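Regression test case RT-17, inverse folding.

Input:
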């Protein structure tokens, strides 16, 4: 009985599988800790095929970061009450046991690599930073945006990664109330007229 011809690999499916595996590995181990061979194994392909699709580990990392940061989690493109909406989303997504935010974990666990930091910084500016700053008042909208992003990162770190006692045990309502006050102050406090440096999404 003649054997069946080998099935052709679906390129789009394979690429997506590699990218999803990469996001998981970079979120778990950071840029330096994630290996192309391990990413390939979990995607059901060879390391050679990963390089064929993405060119290099750095390019794969850049695409994993881009995909992770492009998905809105805390900041919608339009919000009627920005401080309240971000506070509510952060209270939910930072809760102990909540599904971890891959973009945050990739950022957190890749800070030791300068090339990875440049990639993360650019993606952060293009996506979360731009979605937020486009809704903020002048003067100082970029500064307000960066301060708010720093607060979000700090809450995720202290509540979900480190698990400090008070934050871990706080209710969503309690935390949301406090965070809304913080974000309202960041967004609405009058500043002088000094301009922001332009945000281009690149170094």
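Golden output:
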């Amino acid at each position: 009985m003649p054997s069946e011809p080998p099935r052709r690999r679906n390129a789009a499916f394979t690429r997506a599988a590699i990218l999803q595996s990469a996001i998981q590995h970079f979120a778990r181990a950071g840029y330096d800790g994630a290996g192309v061979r391990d990413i390939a194994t979990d995607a059901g392909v060879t390391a050679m095929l990963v390089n064929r699709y993405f060119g290099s580990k750095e390019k794969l990392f850049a695409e994993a970061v881009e995909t992770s940061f492009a998905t809105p989690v805390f900041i919608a493109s339009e919000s009627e009450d920005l401080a309240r909406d971000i506070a509510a989303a952060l209270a939910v997504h930072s809760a102990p046991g909540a599904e971890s935010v891959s973009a945050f974990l990739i950022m957190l666990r890749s800070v030791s690599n300068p090339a990875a930091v440049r990639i993360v910084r650019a993606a952060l500016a293009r996506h979360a930073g731009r979605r937020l700053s486009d809704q903020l008042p002048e003067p100082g909208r970029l500064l307000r945006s960066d301060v708010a992003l720093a607060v979000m990162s700090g809450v995720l770190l202290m509540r979900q990664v480190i698990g400090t006692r008070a934050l871990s045990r706080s209710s969503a309502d309690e935390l949301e109330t406090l965070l809304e006050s913080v974000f309202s102050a960041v967004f609405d406090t009058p500043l002088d007229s000094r301009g922001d440096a332009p945000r281009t999404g690149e170094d």
